[in-house]
Amino acid sequence: MTTEQSSKAEAVRLEELWRGDFGDAYVERNKAAGNVRAAFWNEILEEFPARRVLEVGCNMGANLGWIAQKLPPQQVYGIDINLKSLDLLHQNLPQVNGIWSPARELPFRDNWFDMVFTMGVLIHQPESTLPIVMAEIVRCSRRYVLCGEYYAEEKAEVPYRGQTGALFKRNYRRLYEELFPQLKLVKQGFLSQDQGWDDVTYFVFEKQ
Ligand SMILES: C[S@@+](CC[C@H](N)C(=O)[O-])C[C@H]1O[C@@H](n2cnc3c(N)ncnc32)[C@H](O)[C@@H]1O
Predict the structure, then answer these.
(1) Which range marks the domain in which residue 42 is found?
(2) 3-class SS at 149?
(3) CB of 129 closer than 6 angstroms to any ligand 1 atom
(4) Which residues pair with 53 in a beta bridge?
(5) What was the pLDDT predicted at 206?
(6) What is the pLDDT of residue 7?
(7) What domain count does the chain have?
(8) What does the alpha-carbon distance between residue 64 and residue 67 come to, in Å, rounded to a whole number?
(9) Which residues, including other chains, have CB under 8 Å from residue 28's CB and lie 6 or more apart?
(10) Which atom of ligand 1 is nearest to the CA of 57?
(11) How do residues 89-107 score in pLDDT, each as one tens digit?
(12) Contact 84 CB / ligand 1 (< 6 Å)
């Protein structure tokens, strides 16, 4: 197997994981995950006005539900690779656009959104496709990129529900800034479990 083939194989392995029983079990465990996230999204959308928003790895809409209360739901988009989560999104938020797609090939034109974000999704991308996923996010956003992920100064793998190579803490701020010098950091913060996240560090960048 060439290096390119094995890199692709790792991305496909993780995508298969999220598409299958492992991803379905996440949906079952996290049905109440979004209940207390309103305050965060109200603050973000007031500070960074956006008319059309995309979440990459939206699952059942724990973030999109709040965003769709601030924006017309037709302008709210999410992609995910797990069909069970998208079924729930369609049931609960029928006007929101929930679309099946792998994060490394977003089915949108350049600059189509005012804000594109991830919450707990870059951590699940392998080394080989992480820069591709980030490039897709930057490509699709006209203005803001928001990244909420587990932070570590240096890359550290975290064992995740019996899987190896499935969760990495990193300095995502540094990665975005190194790969995309056109991004300028405009906000950062920390989201604890009381706020509906599992100790996530978030960064908001604006395209220059
Ligand atoms: C930990 S969950 C986070 C869900 C949501 N962002 C939130 O804050 O509640 C990760 C989500 O990303 C999706 N995902 C993981 N890797 C993906 C990929 N390569 N392409 C598309 N979706 C992916 C999973 O199916 C899952 O719904």
Answers:
(1) 3-207
(2) strand
(3) no
(4) 76, 115
(5) 98
(6) 72
(7) 1
(8) 5
(9) none
(10) 12
(11) 999 999 999 999 999 999 9
(12) no
CATH number where 108 lies: 3.40.50.150
Out of 77, 104, 121, 133, mutate this one to test ligand 1's pocket (max ligand atoms within 8 Å of CB): namely 121
Mean pLDDT value across residues 174-188: 98
The answer to whether 167 and 191 have CB atoms below 8 angstroms apart is no
Say yes or no: CB of residue 98 within 6 Å of ligand 1: no
Q: Which atom of ligand 1 is nearest to the CA of 27?
A: 27
Residue/partner pairs of 9-15 with CB below 8 Å, 24 or more apart? 10/126, 10/127, 10/128, 10/129, 10/165, 11/102, 11/104, 11/125, 11/126, 11/128, 11/129, 13/165, 14/124, 14/125, 14/126, 14/165, 14/166, 15/81, 15/102
What confidence tens digit (pLDDT) does each residue in 14-65 have? Answer: 999 999 999 999 999 999 989 999 999 999 999 999 999 999 999 999 999 9
Average pLDDT of the residues of the chain: 96
Categorize the per-residue pLDDT at 195 as very low, low, confident or very high, splitting at 50, 70 and 90: confident
- Is the pLDDT reported for residue 3 higher than 90? no
Please give the pLDDT value at position 105: 97
Query: Could you give the C-alpha distances from 157 to 92, 151, 161, 167, 206, in angstroms and in order?
Result: 34, 11, 13, 6, 29
